[in-house]
């Protein structure tokens, strides 16, 4: 409902005279809508519902009960969210997304790092992958603005971080007790630890409370201390934007040079056409290429904005590397649901053979007492004894590893399976590559050395044969200076269409090894500025 038009509550009909139509209300779409709504008529279409914030405690309870899987927490699944896999590597897509107002930030962990300078120049500096058509300097002021908008707690104690122009909006979270244990081992090994930028409040910020330590950040923060995109959806509505939930966009109508309408379906079975002067597609690295492929026409027989043939290609995700075990002393895990210390020391050593990676010192190794209690069949003293024996001595390190863009890693349409509207579902064909697997091995070497220095008994290793995705969808609508090499230009405007932008990690030409949301937010703010400027020139 728009604050400027309360009568639209429950009304999913198109908005007349819209200047901008945004598809998707995750962090990218929400930031674009908020930035443009003050002086433009903005409408946001999202396939999912508007979740009631008072239900978050119920969703938290789901998250900790073993009878629920992660997608169940935010009602993901069923025919609406059907997908398929065809690659050698299985991709659990429904563990990675939330369909609804706020998008994936409803269940993300909230880590927000800037990409490093060399990440934008991978071909030049590392000898692999393409260079971006923009560099760190182009995004640097938008990174700072994104940190203010999301509310980032951090410190300037990371000597390996890219240059910044001002402090983070909030002070960093204090190192945890287990961080102090890691610090002793890392000092012996000559490994540097530093704080981690978090999109959660270390103090009251922007009308939201400080973190109160629920420990269930992923997949739900009941306190609202962790940023999610409903913050900017609400602001956009206060400025007059119209946000229409459960409005699944089926296709984008267009002529040879412009998008003319977003055709969307509503729960009553009706289809509507939302026209606008400008369109911003912000529905993620899987649903965005799917929508473009569903919008094929005589002008674009291989999918909209796909004259390059790269829509859906070069699908990337970060890979997980980890080592864990137990100590013969308490480590005080699961007091918070995020990590407070990291190591970027080895990140910029990347070259053709080994990719960039970052290391993480976990605060949530092993099961929490609640999880242990809910999975047992004992009671009373037996339960207490089991919890005392099994909780509190776990320790673990994690890490993210870059995957290079590969032509044999892609998102396409499944020819045999359809969703609840009869459209082909996304098919994920995920390929990884040897460089990423070698990088995992390198990360494991360092992680193992730290835990051995601690005196831990190592009980598991997430190495090349046991890795998985970090659920960061990148590369499927990539940015390029050459129209034949990508989908969007340096401003994230599609090469083929004058009035269509893509705001998503899908535009990343390379992935780096940093969590992507801060870069998504910075690019979204930059997209909004470009849309405003071109609208002012009568786009």
From TrEMBL:
<dbReference type="Pfam" id="PF00732">
    <property type="entry name" value="GMC_oxred_N"/>
</dbReference>
<feature type="domain" description="4Fe-4S ferredoxin-type">
    <location>
        <begin position="201"/>
        <end position="231"/>
    </location>
</feature>
<dbReference type="InterPro" id="IPR017896">
    <property type="entry name" value="4Fe4S_Fe-S-bd"/>
</dbReference>
<keyword id="KW-0285">Flavoprotein</keyword>
<keyword id="KW-0274">FAD</keyword>
<dbReference type="Pfam" id="PF05199">
    <property type="entry name" value="GMC_oxred_C"/>
</dbReference>
<comment type="similarity">
    <text>Belongs to the GMC oxidoreductase family.</text>
</comment>
<dbReference type="InterPro" id="IPR036188">
    <property type="entry name" value="FAD/NAD-bd_sf"/>
</dbReference>
<keyword id="KW-0560">Oxidoreductase</keyword>
<dbReference type="InterPro" id="IPR000172">
    <property type="entry name" value="GMC_OxRdtase_N"/>
</dbReference>
<dbReference type="InterPro" id="IPR051473">
    <property type="entry name" value="P2Ox-like"/>
</dbReference>
<dbReference type="InterPro" id="IPR007867">
    <property type="entry name" value="GMC_OxRtase_C"/>
</dbReference>
<dbReference type="GO" id="GO:0050660">
    <property type="term" value="F:flavin adenine dinucleotide binding"/>
</dbReference>
<protein>
    <submittedName>
        <fullName>GMC family oxidoreductase</fullName>
    </submittedName>
</protein>
<dbReference type="GO" id="GO:0016614">
    <property type="term" value="F:oxidoreductase activity, acting on CH-OH group of donors"/>
</dbReference>
């Amino acid at each position: 409902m728009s604050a400027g038009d309360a009568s639209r509550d429950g009304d999913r009909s198109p908005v007349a005279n819209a200047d901008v139509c945004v598809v998707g209300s995750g962090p990218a779409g929400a930031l674009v809508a908020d930035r443009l709504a003050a002086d433009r008529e903005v409408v946001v279409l999202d396939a999912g519902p508007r979740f009631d914030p008072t239900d978050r405690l119920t969703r938290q309870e789901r998250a900790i009960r073993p009878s629920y899987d992660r997608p169940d927490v935010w009602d993901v699944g069923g025919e609406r969210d059907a997908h398929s896999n065809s690659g050698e590597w299985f991709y659990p897509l429904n563990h990675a997304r939330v369909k609804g107002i706020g998008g994936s930030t409803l269940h993300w962990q909230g880590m927000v790092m800037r990409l490093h300078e060399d990440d934008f120049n991978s071909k030049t500096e590392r000898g692999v992958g393409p260079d971006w058509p923009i560099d760190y300097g182009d995004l640097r002021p938008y990174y700072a603005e994104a940190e203010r908008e999301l509310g980032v707690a951090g410190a300037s104690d990371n000597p390996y971080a890219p240059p910044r122009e001002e402090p983070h909006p909030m002070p960093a979270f204090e190192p945890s007790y287990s961080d102090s244990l890691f610090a002793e081992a890392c000092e012996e090994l000559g490994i540097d630890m530093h704080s981690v930028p978090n999109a959660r409040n270390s103090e009251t910020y922007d009308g939201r409370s400080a973190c109160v330590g629920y420990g269930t950040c992923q997949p739900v923060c009941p306190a609202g201390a962790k940023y999610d995109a409903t913050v900017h959806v609400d602001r956009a509505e206060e400025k007059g934007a119209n946000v229409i939930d459960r409005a699944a966009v089926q296709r984008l109508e267009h002529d040879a040079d412009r998008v003319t309408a977003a055709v969307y379906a509503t729960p009553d079975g009706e289809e509507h056409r939302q026209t606008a002067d400008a369109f911003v597609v912000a529905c993620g690295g899987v649903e965005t290429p799917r929508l473009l492929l569903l919008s094929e026409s005589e002008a674009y027989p291989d999918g909209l904005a796909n004259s390059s043939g790269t829509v859906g290609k070069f699908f990337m995700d970060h890979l997980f590397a980890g080592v864990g075990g137990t100590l013969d002393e308490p480590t005080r895990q699961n007091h918070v649901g995020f990590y407070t210390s990291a190591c970027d020391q080895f990140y910029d050593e990347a070259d053709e053979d080994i990719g960039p990676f970052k290391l993480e010192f976990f605060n949530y190794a092993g099961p929490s007492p609640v999880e242990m209690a809910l999975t047992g069949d004992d009671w009373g003293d037996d339960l207490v004894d089991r919890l005392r024996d099994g909780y509190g001595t776990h320790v673990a390190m994690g890490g993210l590893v870059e995957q290079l863009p590969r032509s044999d890693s892609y998102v396409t349409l499944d020819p045999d399976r359809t969703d609840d509207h009869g459209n082909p579902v996304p098919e994920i064909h995920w390929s990884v590559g040897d460089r990423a697997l070698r990088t995992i091995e390198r990360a494991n070497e360092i992680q193992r050395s730290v835990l051995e220095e601690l005196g831990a008994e190592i009980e598991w290793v997430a190495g090349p044969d046991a890795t998985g995705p970090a659920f960061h969808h990148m590369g499927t609508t990539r940015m390029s200076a050459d129209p034949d090499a990508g989908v969007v230009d340096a401003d994230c405007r599609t090469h083929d269409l004058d009035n269509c932008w893509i705001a998503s990690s899908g535009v990343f030409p390379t992935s780096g090894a940093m969590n992507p949301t801060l870069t998504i937010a910075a690019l979204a703010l930059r997209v909004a500025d470009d849309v405003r400027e071109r609208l002012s020139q009568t786009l």
